[in-house]
Specification:
Low-confidence stretches of chain B: none
Largest sheet of chain B: 4 strands, mixed
CATH architecture of the largest domain in chain A: 3-Layer(aba) Sandwich
CATH superfamily of the largest domain in chain B: Glutaredoxin
CATH architecture of the largest domain in chain B: 3-Layer(aba) Sandwich
Order of helices and strands of chain B: HHHHEHHEEEH
Number of strands of chain B: 4
CATH topology of the largest domain in chain B: Glutaredoxin
Largest sheet of chain A: 5 strands, mixed
Oligomer: heterodimer
Helix content of chain B: 40-55%
Mean pLDDT of chain A: 94
CATH class of the largest domain in chain B: Alpha Beta
Shape of chain B: globular
Structural class of chain A: alpha/beta
Helix content of chain A: 25-40%
Number of domains of chain B: 2
Distance between the termini of chain A: 67 Å
Structural class of chain B: alpha+beta
Radius of gyration of chain A: 26 Å
Radius of gyration of chain B: 18 Å
């Protein structure tokens, strides 16, 4: 590929590519996101390739095949979408491929693989009509199911790098910053600091050397949108970073990414190489005289490195311990130089804002929270997946319209937003609009967008213990309030779950929690008590049940439950008896079995093997 | 596994000898040996001119590094929130009991290392167990038994054959 040295070169390239990647080009797109790959989408892709070439279907079939990034509807993977029509097939297996191809050649669809709406039972042919997608507004994720992330040409044909060209060709750095400020974009990493203002502070700092960093250390358990963006559309992140570097005056950037995301790393590496070859990265970008390069730094599995000062310490090759702020990174960051750190979603939003304009962007969302937010809706929900919605949407719409409600006819209990730093929002607040301020007022935080749905089978005390265990293990240990405070809170929660809770434990947790929040060094400790404080606030009765009545209403905490057999349901099939690892079940064929509560370890094996719902947990 | 000083020297390439490359160097060594041998840690600190105490601090701070050799098969149980609410603690518990080791440990015969990970980001398939890089989704206590049995059986076959 030839290097692009001017705007005219770029226009010529793009015009040429647009005919190769026309919007009406027929494609079979197979989702290549991590979720669908686990379901076997690579094998499905291979099967399509073989089917098309072996049968020489190319003669009659004009469709080309490609593997895209994550489509978002992970629950239904492997996903295959036939474009441009948008026919969506779910749970596609290798054996389905010949039928799909044969029917496609005849202009027909395979009905059994189409999506069936769980509420109405209606068969829905097109992706855009499925309620999961219909209520979304996909700005950042819009190309995820369309692009082949390995082809920079396709990104260019679909409008990629035009924002960079616009910025370098016709905007001063101050104008770019003014545009960002006018858009109202706030940091998508969780804290919600206005992005344009942060850039301005960094630009105004004296000094020749400045850095930009993309924080891709997506550590919140249950959040995976940053990974999907980098896997599915890595160039948009690079384009955003390059525009930011130009506005700030940086010539070096870093992407700090988790090593648990090998596919995202691979895609990003390839994207950097391609961008360098075309000259979107490197020296004299598009002939403008602006130089910028990006390096990848792999995180090594430490949650605290998502905190910006710890992240920079890690890039410098040190232990990822945070330091007090100020000075903020914009003043003294990486190697003491002014540094601007933004989250993946923030960087990916930048080209969109430049392309469509600040006014257009600021029209989306609420008064104080502009644009869209991506949530990974997971846990006990029908439609697990990545969802991009305008700020201000209600939780109810998110969980019931898009998420499809709670599986197995269970009742919604709470939505946990913001991961280990966030809080739970109970059913009575389902109609609250989701924006930075409303969530904070309810005791949760926007965070990076992890949204875990808990239902009646989720014990909120155990849930709080889970998060506290997470933060306690991930606490770097530098400051006492976080190191000792989280440990003390965890021990208390463990005692409560073990049925050894005491009156006064809740007051102790509340008092200690407020203290840890107030006095910890960094964001990890300052937010770690949130899951505990918010569950005590909304689910005090569950704590009381554990402490006073010594029962676990959700039947989760092992020390507080017993397993028994429902005689009416038990057929005496001996399956549970044979599978019980602690030989706690006795009985003979066609006789009702009995569980010895003393031997039973409540491992759940019998429930998982019983076909007759004959195991009762009380 | 044999530890070769010249090989470790090669892993520490020239371009890595810049500022802040300690973690990248340790990542290379970890990837090669699946742990950080004592010799490698000492050599890395010498080549990079970083105090051994700092190399040790980094090696013990990050989860990706291990100072102990790992077993032949690596089992990772995802403990992310979505997997948690769908029952990953029971799955982990079961694997721990079956193998007779706790998470973070290796069986005495060096066949299995059991680890927990914080969210692999494939939440739709939770609970997830990764065996030697291969994902198994929607795990139950029963399915984890089958998974272990399958690996043990292939090991038996190898031993007999």
């Amino acid at each position: 590929m030839d290097r692009i040295n001017s705007a005219a070169d770029f226009d010529r390239l793009r015009t040429g590519l647009q005919s190769d990647y026309a919007p009406d080009h027929p494609w079979i797109t197979v989702c290549g996101g991590t979720g669908c790959r686990v379901y076997g989408s690579e094998k499905v892709w291979n099967a399509f390739r073989d089917e098309i070439t072996n049968k020489n279907m190319n003669a009659t079939l004009t469709y080309d095949l490609k593997m895209t990034g994550c489509h978002g509807f992970c629950e239904k993977g492997p996903l295959v979408v036939i474009r441009p029509m948008g026919i969506m097939y779910t749970h596609v297996q290798v054996g389905d491929v010949p039928e799909i191809v044969a029917e496609l050649a005849n202009g027909r669809t395979v009905e059994r693989l189409l999506y069936s709406d769980p509420k109405s039972g209606e068969i829905i042919e097109h992706e855009h009509d499925v309620s999961f997608y219909k209520h979304q507004q996909r700005l950042i994720l819009n190309l995820n199911g369309i692009l082949d992330p390995f082809r920079i040409d396709e990104y260019i044909a679909l409008g990629g790098y035009t924002s960079l060209e616009k910025v370098l060709g016709s905007m001063s750095p101050e104008q770019v910053i003014a545009e960002l400020k006018a858009s109202g974009l706030r940091g998508r990493g969780g804290a919600g600091y206005p992005t344009g203002s942060k850039w301005e502070m960094c630009r105004k700092q004296p000094g020749e050397i400045k850095y930009v960093i993309c924080n891709a250390d997506e550590g919140d358990p249950g959040a995976y949108m940053d990974r999907s963006i980098m896997e599915g559309n890595p160039h948009r992140v690079l384009e955003g970073m390059t525009i930011g570097a130009y506005a700030i005056g940086a010539d070096q950037g870093y992407v700090y990414i988790r090593n648990e995301y090998p596919l995202a790393v691979k895609h990003l590496r390839q994207a950097i190489k391609q961008a360098q070859e075309y000259g979107f990265l490197g020296t004299n970008i598009l002939g403008s005289g602006f130089d910028f390069n990006v390096n990848i730094k792999l995180g090594s599995g430490a949650f605290v490195c998502g905190e910006e000062t710890a992240l920079m310490a890690s890039i410098e090759g040190r232990v990822g311990e945070p330091r007090p702020r100020p000075p903020y990174p914009t003043t003294a960051g990486l190697w003491g130089k002014p540094t601007n750190i933004n989250n993946v979603k923030s960087w990916a939003s930048v080209p969109i804002i430049i392309e469509r304009g600040a006014d257009w962007y600021a029209d989306i969302g609420t008064e104080t929270s502009k644009g869209t937010m991506i949530f990974s809706v997971v846990g006990n929900i029908n439609n697990t997946g990545l969802v991009e919605v305008p700020m201000g949407i209600s939780l109810r719409e998110l969980i019931y319209e898009i998420g499809g409600g709670i599986p197995h006819g269970n009742t919604f209990k709470a939505a946990q937003i913001g991961g280990p730093s966030g809080g739970c929002i109970p059913a009575q607040h389902l109609d609250t609009p989701i924006d930075y301020e409303s969530l904070t007022a309810l005791g949760a935080i926007m965070g990076s967008g992890g949204l875990v749905v808990a239902d009646e089978d989720t014990c909120m005390v155990d849930f709080a213990r889970y998060f506290m265990q997470f933060t306690q293990e991930e606490s770097c240990g530098k400051c006492v309030p976080c190191r000792v405070g989280t440990k003390a809170m965890l021990e208390t929660l463990k005692r409560i779950c073990a049925g050894e809770g005491q009156l006064g434990d809740m007051d102790y947790l509340l008092e200690l929690g407020e203290e840890v929040k107030r006095s910890s060094l960094c964001g990890l400790g300052q937010t770690a008590p949130n899951p505990v404080l918010s569950t005590i606030h909304y689910f005090r009765d569950e704590y009381e049940a554990h402490i006073v009545d010594k029962t676990c209403p959700a039947k989760v905490c092992k020390a507080l439950i017993t397993y028994s057999i429902i005689p009416e349901n038990c057929t005496g099939c001996m399956v549970c008896l044979r599978n019980c690892p602690s030989d706690a079940i006795t009985g003979t064929k066609q006789e009702v079995h009995v569980i010895d509560a003393d031997l039973c370890t409540r491992c759940g094996m019998c429930i998982s093997v019983c076909k007759f719902d004959a195991i009762l947990v009380t | 596994m044999r530890i070769s000083i010249s090989e470790i020297n090669q892993l520490i390439s020239q371009e890595m000898l810049g500022d802040g490359s300690l973690i990248s160097v340790l990542e290379e060594i970890q990837q090669r040996y699946r742990y950080l041998p004592r010799e490698a840690l000492i050599l890395a600190s010498e080549r990079l001119d970083v105090p051994l105490s700092q190399a040790y601090a980094v090696a013990t701070f990050y989860n990706a590094f291990s100072l102990k050799p790992k077993g032949k098969h690596c089992l990772q149980v995802c403990m992310g929130t979505a997997c948690h609410v769908r029952g990953s603690p029971q799955v982990l518990n079961r694997i721990e009991t079956t193998l007779g080791i706790a998470a973070g440990e290796t069986t005495p015969d060096m066949l299995f290392t059991l680890e927990t990970v914080n969210c692999l980001g494939a939440c739709a398939l939770g609970p997830i167990v990764v065996t030697d890089g291969e994902y198994s989704g929607q795990m139950t206590v029963q399915k984890s038994d089958m998974l272990l049995k399958r690996i043990m059986r292939t090991e038996e076959v190898k031993k007999d054959g």
